[in-house]
Structure formats: structure tokens, C-alpha cells
Amino acid sequence: MNDKNDSHARLVAETFHGDWNGSAASKFALRAAARARTRVKLRHAAATGGGLVAIATGIFFAMRDPQSTPSLVPAVVSTAKPTPAYEIITDDELVALLRDQPLLILPQERGERRFVLLAQSTRD
Amino acid sequence: MHGVASPLNAAGYPARMESTSAPSPLRDLTSGLARGDDEAWTEFHRDYGPGIFRQHLAATRGDHDLASEALQQTYLRIARHARPCDSAPMFTAWLRTVARSALHDCWRRRRTFWQLLRNPLAAPEDASDENDDATLSEALESALNRLDAADRALLEQKYFSGLDVRSLAARLEITPKAVESRLTRARAELRRVLIDMLKSHE
Q1: Which residue among A5, A7, B14, B172 is buried most deeply as judged by most CB within 10 Å?
Q2: Nearest CB neighbour to B41, from listed A15, A16, A30
């Protein structure tokens, strides 16, 4: 396609299209030129729009209330052990804890014991 | 599927073709194509259009409509992907790739299922560009040889010797308008013979 001086190509082109420079095919070139211009405009518009969006985003973040922004400082993690919701103790420890209160001890099957705090049960 | 590069692949060429050397005429032209300058596109159509059309006509074995459609699609793809370029060989190779790809897409769009069944081997991509060019050149030579001697001489003087219509008129001692008429008739006859010859190659 090194056809700047390719007389054969020109002969073929004009054989099928008449005067090549004034033929219908020359309108293809002008149409392509218009398409290229449209693409350039769209590209510029997209670049301008992108720039405006970037500026608007920057302004938005710059004007935001600093207190509403999430802190970048990591939350302090407490090293103190949490107090457990309950504690498992032995029967003897329970008896020791309720030493001054009336307590009924009922032996159960398989050697287990049931503790009934009399003062509370009478209140109930 | 043959190895036609897509326009996207082809579009990768110009970026590599760019260089920082001094502006060349080709760079001016390709920059104008990328910008969509009417002047640049007119120049491109004048200088490169015949070669692209010839490539399409050779590949389609003289199918003028398909070759013209492919030419239009080629221009549109060039408008989409053109970038400034300094290297003539690379630009020419890129044009060939874009042209081949555009023709292939036009052919595929046009080809119907039944045509495919009837003649599955008739795709233009079956032959290489070089073979197509050789076939067209051969057919053109034969077609010129079949023309009336005066018509052939007129076409050769116009296109191969580079004489303009005014010079031809002076040489033949007829008016420029008469030369134009004779040229038109000679080209019409050449076209008829050329299409017959290209179809006989199928």
C-alpha cells in the first residue's frame, strides 16, 4: 500500500469510482474526518468532566466537618480482664459463703446435693 | 478463523511508532487524521485511498460494492485509531492490517448462512494479500491488453505516463472534454473486462 505514486492503484480506483478525488469515496474520507473530530471532542469533554469531578471531590472532602471524619487513630484495646458473668464454685465454698443463712441440704440420687436457701424460699 | 488482527490490536501500532524526532510530512498527515482535519483526510484519500481500494478489490475478486463498503469501514477505523506516526513502513503495514480486518468484518456481515453452506471456501481471507495483488495486477494487464489500442494508449498515457487531460488533448488534437469522454468510456470498458477476468479467477 505504498501507493503515493502507484499508478496501477489509481487506475483501478478511477476505473471503479470515476474521478477519485470527487467520487463518492471521497465522502467516506470526509465522514471519517467528522467522526475523528467528534471523538476528539468527546475525549476532551471526558477529560474536562473528569477534572471537574476530581476538583469537586477534593473540595467536598476539604470542607467536611473534621469531627465527622472517621479517626485514623486505632481504638485503644483494654488489657484488663473482663469480670465473668458467673463463677463455678464447689459445694464447700457455697456452704462457706452462706454460713450465716438458713440452708437446707437435700441429698439427691447419685450422691448429688441440692441446696435450698430457706430465708429466700420463704420470701418467695 | 484466519489471523486478521482486530482494530484494537492494530491500534497498538501507532503508539509504538511515535518518536520524538523532527516532524515529518507523514507525522503531519497522521496528526491531521487523528484530529479529523478535512485537508489531511482529503490528502490521505488521494494518496492512500487507491491502494486501500485496490487491496479490497483484489481480495473480493472485483466485488465493487463490497470493496467500497470495506473502504468506508477502513476509513472509519482509521479515524478511530489514528495516532501521529513517523514510520512510513509501519504506517503502511498498519493500514493493511486495518483494511484487512475491516474487509473481513464486512464480508462476515454480508455472508449469510446459506451462502456459507453453498460455498464455504469462498472467503476472501483464504488468499494472502500478495496473492490477491498479483492476481489483480495480472488481471489488469490482461484487461488492458484486451482493450482497443487507442483506449489502452489513452489510459497508459494518463495513468502510467502521468499526462494530464490538457496535455492529452493537445497531443491528440481534441478538446479536453472529448478526452474526458474517451477516458470515461475506456475506463468503463476496462472495468467490464477486469471484473470478468477477476471472476474467472475464482
Answers
A1: B14
A2: A30
Minimal CA–CA distance to A15: which of B134, B194, B153, B69? B194
Which cell goes with B196? Answer: 470478468
Q: How far apart are CA A32 and CA A45, in angstroms?
A: 20
CB-CB contact of B103 with B59 (8 Å) = yes
Whether residue A37 and residue B36 make contact (CB cut-off 8 A), yes or no, is yes
pLDDT tens track for B91-126 = 999 999 999 999 999 988 887 655 666 665 555 555
Contact A20/B34, CB-based, under 8 Å? no
The model's pTM: 0.67
| Set of chain A residues whose Cβ sits within 8 Å of the Cβ of B78 | 32
Distance, first Cα to last Cα, chain B: 20
Residues 35-64 of A with CB under 8 A from B: 35-40
For the residues A9-14, what does the mean pLDDT come to?
92
